[in-house]
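Retro notes - structure team

What went well: the batch runner handled both jobs without manual restarts.
What didn't: labels got mixed up in the shared folder, which is why I'm recording both outputs here explicitly, each with its sequence directly above its tokens.

Job 1
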Amino acid sequence: SSGINAEYGDSNWIPQLSPHNVLAYFCQRSNLFYDKTCNNEVAKMQRLNPSQLLHMKGIEYILLHVDEPSDLMIIRKQERHSPSHVVPLANYYVLQGTIYQAPDLHHVLNSRLAGTLFHLQEALDKTLKMSRYDPNKGHYWSFDPPAPSKEEKLRSEPCSQFQRESVDKLIDILTKKYQHFMLRTGPVVTEQQNLKQESKDEPQR
């Protein structure tokens, strides 16, 4: 299960990696997913023809699928009992030179159930907030929106006449106190326009 979140890659192989050598790439002793007691390792050490794997019993790795447009290759770990009987144990996918372990059915179901339980718990918590009890009615459901808090009421209430008058007085005081900082109203006259006006005002010679 710890291999689900692990990955392996060898940058020296990536430029030349292809469906023809991906199984040899996977069967490196440095690959954490590779079982060094498998039949592939025995055949490699004894320099046997790969076809001899069909007549051996035990753990082996095969190239299961190749999808060249997406550069995806799948390696299967399986246990061989006879030339025609194998039991799949795990799948590994090689994508752009990096090897990952595909999740098994247990992890897929566990992930789906965890997501489902989260949403069910969230729905149950919201539903319980709508449960009410009255001595006369007993237990009942109230689907009306919850009453706003005091802070929400204060934010939503319009300001009073006193507040508006106070703000107006404050603005008037600040305006009189800092009126020399206020910008002049009216059209903005550029330096070029000033020069043109001065040339017009000069007496003609």
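Job 2
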Amino acid sequence: MIGMDNDDWPCAQCGKNLRSEAEAIGCDSRSCNRWFHPSCLTGLTQFDVDSNKWFCHLCSGNKNKDQPTPENCDILKNKNKDQPTPENCDILKNVKWGALKGKELLETITRAYDEIVTWRRNVFKLPTGKAGKTFLKELTTLFSLFNNDTPSKPISLTLIMIFCPLMLQKPSKNSKSKDHTKCLEYRLKLWEAGDLAGLLRDGKAIQARLLKGKRRHTDDHEKRFCRLMLEGKVSAALKWVTEQRSGLLEANQKVVDELLMKHPKAEPMHKDVALEGPHFLPPKVTYHPIDAQAIYLAS
């Protein structure tokens, strides 16, 4: 018998709230969350109250039947029997997603999950409009696969776990809402086609940039110059100004002609320098951070 701290907790017998100043009795069954007024429990004896364990009338008949013991450890034999593994993946033999099916489908989803759980948090807010509605519709479908006992139920929760981070990866630090909408539309098409490998390449490219870490923030040119001058470091201030001069040339016709003249002429491809084996184009998100400012800083 313990004191209750929650004024809104109802008695499972009479339905009235259990007040903090009143005593209550809680069922000790792990699967039960019921509390009672002592006065509502007819037939309750002092022995029941003083014993280490007490079970309500709904649980007393099933007390401990679901708890594994040396006598009933057989209940663990069939635990997770419906969970797909490489050994029993036949339960997914009729489930197909794009070109993936059965064991290949299970292994691909499992690898994707193992990869995604290590990713850093980097998601954008769900856009409004058609793309956002399509995202919610697909997410609802995945939950329905689990709730309606479909053949895809064993993998539905894993799909839900990987769906959101794959769809909502922010392409770059300064990406805008319109960029997010385009990315989401593109990724939803890959998802519909079952191109999980393409989605993972997209996400890995983004995460690779995040893992490089944040660059140390530096003052802008004026503040840095003024600080050095106030500290009496004139030489350092002049050196700073000199180092910040840009090496970019104005893109006028004279400069363009000069570059064309210096650019080597194209040569026929040699077989020795050609790449062999399967290759993939860089993910589209690779180009998102490349803007005028990035080119200027790189120069």
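One thing worth noting from job 2: The first strand starts at residue 2 and ends at 3.
We'll revisit the folder naming next retro.
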